[in-house]
Write a structure and sequence with these properties.
alpha/beta; Alpha/beta knot; Trp Operon Repressor, Chain A; 2 domains; 5-stranded parallel sheet
Length: 245
């Protein structure tokens, strides 16, 4: 997987690209990250990348010319997706990360700044992605989150592949409570079922905890899970009925 990050502040990525699982994945060539500064593609002596918006308004906008020149300078893979990090985009979630990790070999990520980008930049873009319903000073932090979430899904990044499927959001539910030693800490005990060695009982308890935790903490997510669960059951019932004929 190749990431091309178009950013006015490439130094922001220095630590992110050299630490933890992401740093190890890049060292093993599981993914490559290239940082492209639009300022390097300006043609005026002041290397100007922003200007006032037509019609007036507060703040400055990123000009289209440097962004177009930066993106068009890149090699283009067959399975390429150009993404603009924008609060107006689709909200980043696990299904989106998995889709991008599976279906593309190159992601060009444009980090907006100031009050945003000239609307014509959208002619370059395949999709807009948002970290959430809030405003940040730029697209660098969302781009780091996107890259982190995708790289950890690539084969070879995470040691135990099972951990990628048994975690929050993969099945539409939050993760179950987890404990490690000691068995008792300041009077708080690890649930007895986890000490029982009964794997069937442990699996049942964990699944029940996932459902309960999601219902209490994320009613919106729980509602989606219920609907999907209901659809699966109905499809199963129809399939069983068809087999009887």
């Amino acid at each position: 997987m190749r990431f091309d990050i178009v950013t006015l502040f490439p130094d922001c990525f220095t630590s992110v690209l050299t630490t933890g699982l992401i740093g190890k994945a890049l060292a093993k060539q599981i993914a490559q990250v290239h940082l492209i500064n639009p300022r390097d593609f300006t043609t005026d002596k002041h290397r100007k990348v922003d200007d006032e918006p037509y019609g007036g308004g507060v703040g400055m906008l990123m000009k289209p010319e440097p962004i177009f020149a930066a993106v068009e300078s890149l090699p283009k893979f067959h399975r390429q997706e150009v993404i603009l990090m924008s609060p107006q985009g689709q909200t980043m979630n696990q299904p989106l990360l998995r889709e991008l990790a599976t279906n593309y070999d190159q992601l060009v990520v444009i980090c907006g700044h100031y009050e945003g980008v000239d609307e014509r930049v959208l002619h370059l873009v395949d999709r807009e992605v948002s970290l959430g319903d809030f405003i940040l000073t730029g697209g660098e932090i969302p781009a780091m989150a996107l890259m982190n979430g995708i790289v950890r899904l690539l084969p070879g990044t995470v040691g135990k592949v099972e951990s990628l499927t048994a975690e929050s959001f993969e099945e539409g539910l939050l993760d179950y409570p987890q404990y490690t030693r000691p068995a008792v800490f300041r009077g708080w005990k690890v649930p007895e079922v986890l000490l029982s060695g009964n794997h069937a009982a442990i699996s049942k308890w964990r699944y029940e905890q996932q459902i309960t935790r999601t219902r209490l903490r994320r009613p919106d997510l729980f509602k989606c899970w219920q609907e999907k669960h209901r659809e699966h059951r109905e499809q199963g019932s129809r399939g069983a009925g068809e087999n009887n004929f």
